[in-house]
From TrEMBL:
Ribosomal protein recorded as keyword: no
One Gene Ontology MF term: hydroxymethylglutaryl-CoA synthase activity
Matching CDD domains: init_cond_enzymes (cd00827)
Domain of life: Bacteria
InterPro entries reported in the protein's UniProt record: HMG_CoA_synt_C_dom, HMG_CoA_synth_N, HMG_CoA_synthase_prok, Thiolase-like
Sequence ranges assigned to domain Hydroxymethylglutaryl-coenzyme A synthase N-terminal in this UniProt record: 2-167
Alphabetical list of Pfam families matching this protein: HMG_CoA_synt_C, HMG_CoA_synt_N
Recorded family membership: Belongs to the thiolase-like superfamily. HMG-CoA synthase family.
Protein name: Hydroxymethylglutaryl-CoA synthase
Keywords: Acyltransferase, Transferase
EC number: 2.3.3.10
Length: 396
């Protein structure tokens, strides 16, 4: 049985900030954010958008793209590190908004940016084991990345969700059973205490932790795949490499490290060929934590000019704290056309730019979103309206 991604959906906020504008407002050379970090724009959600609404919008796109009935979903897991409640999972709100069956197992996973990958691996095994009994899994990665205004992390914010339909009809990418390598280690590189809406990070240390985890997971993958020691650089067996993208430059550092591990004396030379297309959309959206690597995969399938049919793609997911996984998939016939048909790049182009004062107002307003009284006017289209009797209210 072949198992993998049948469809994908992506949601990003309708508004964004130009990183060049942010740099000028912070007295920093724009080149530092745009070239030094490799980010052009970052998505900033307005006050009617949260982790739930982004997740629901992405999930709806995935279901519609596969013409999948809500009743066909037997497992819904939302991976997030920016949940909206200490107890009730984001997944339950999504179940309600999408009208999924009551005969569906539903929960939320957390391990920083790795939480979505943990959910995806679980879903793959659920389908492979036969427990799915013909039903499909819906895995959603949804987050709003938030660091303090004026901190070094500020230009690496972003927001968005990626939903994946996982089944034994993997029309997009077959994920290879057994070909996966894991690395985990208790480190304090990035975290968010229960009392804080902003993430805390030991920035340069977090880069080193990411690279250490990449090395460990890649070596572990090579052992699991069982075909190490062949001709040429090991990573030339992949037509593309998709790394977790907290910011574009991190993917460049990751690729340089991986190719150096391969013994490549010119480790940057293959970057544009193997990695470039995966960064087109992340550079316009910023860090979306759990969904970042999957947005990069969507970007690759949407923008790579060459035919990737039958080609292998390497995927590296990193969650601070930490847990990382290197795994691989094979692109299926017609996958690129299906992802292009979602019109993701056109959607990004239709967003509205926020001025820096508007962005700072939104950041302040978002601090109190969890207690905001629900607006009387009914909106539509999966929008957060506020709370009533301590309950979150959503417009459908
Ligand atoms: N023109 C071009 N480039 C410039 C420049 C200019 N005018 N000025 C500086 N640069 C370059 C620097 O040379 C540097 O490049 P290299 O990394 O290649 O040396 C780059 O811009 C960044 O400069 P700094 O290192 O001085 O930047 P900083 O100290 O202000 O912060 C950061 C960088 C540590 C990444 C910070 O943004 C941060 O803490 N971000 C959040 C943490 C993060 O994303 N970590 C990633 C790994 S952890 C992870 O992946 C999990 C997750 O999702 C959070």
């Amino acid at each position: 049985m072949q198992v993998g991604l049948e469809a994908i959906g992506v949601a990003v906020p309708d508004t964004y900030v130009e990183l060049a504008d942010l740099a000028m407002a912070r007295g920093v050379a724009p080149g530092k954010y745009v070239d030094g970090l490799g980010v052009t724009r970052m998505g900033v959600p307005l006050v009617d958008e949260d982790t739930v609404t982004l997740a629901a919008r992405a999930a709806r796109m995935a279901l519609e793209s596969a013409r999948c009935s809500p009743d066909d979903i037997g497992l819904l897991v939302v991976g997030t590190e920016t949940a909206v409640d200490h107890s009730k999972p984001v997944a339950s709100y999504v179940q309600g908004l999408l009208g999924l069956s009551t005969r569906c197992r539903i929960f939320e996973t957390k391990h920083a940016c790795y939480g979505g990958t943990a959910a995806l691996q679980l879903a793959l095994d659920w389908v492979r084991s036969g427990s799915a009994k013909g039903r499909k899994a819906l895995i959603v990665c949804s987050d709003i990345a938030r660091y303090g205004v004026g901190t070094p992390g500020e230009p690496t914010q972003g927001a968005g969700a990626v939903a994946m339909l996982v089944s034994d009809h993997p029309a997009l990418v077959v994920l290879e059973a057994g070909k996966t390598g894991v690395y985990s280690k208790d480190v304090m590189d990035f975290w968010r205490p229960l009392y804080s809406k902003d993430a805390l990070v030991d920035g340069h240390y977090s880069v080193q932790c990411y690279l250490d985890a990449l090395e460990g997971a890649y070596r572990s993958y090579q052992e699991a795949a069982g075909d190490a020691g062949g001709e040429g650089a090991y990573s030339d067996r992949f037509a593309a490499l998709v790394y977790h993208v907290p910011y574009g430059k991190m993917s460049r550092k990751a690729h340089r490290h991986l190719r150096t591990l391969d013994g490549d004396a010119a480790p940057d030379a293959s970057f544009d060929r193997l990695v470039g297309h995966s960064l087109v959309m992340p550079s316009q959206v910023g860090n979306i934590y759990t969904g970042s690597m999957y947005l990069a995969l969507a970007s690759l399938l949407s923008s790579a000019p060459e035919d990737l049919t039958g080609k292998r793609v390497g995927l590296f997911s990193y969650g601070s704290g930490s847990c990382a996984e290197f795994f691989s998939g094979v692109v299926q016939d017609g996958a690129q056309a299906r992802v292009k048909a979602l019109g993701l790049e056109a959607r990004l182009a239709r967003r509205r730019a926020l001025s820096i004062p508007e962005y700072e107002d939104v950041m302040r307003a978002r601090e109190h979103l969890d207690e905001r009284p629900a607006a009387d006017a009914a909106g539509s289209g999966f929008r957060y309206q506020g709370t009533r009797d301590h309950k979150r209210i959503y417009a459908t």
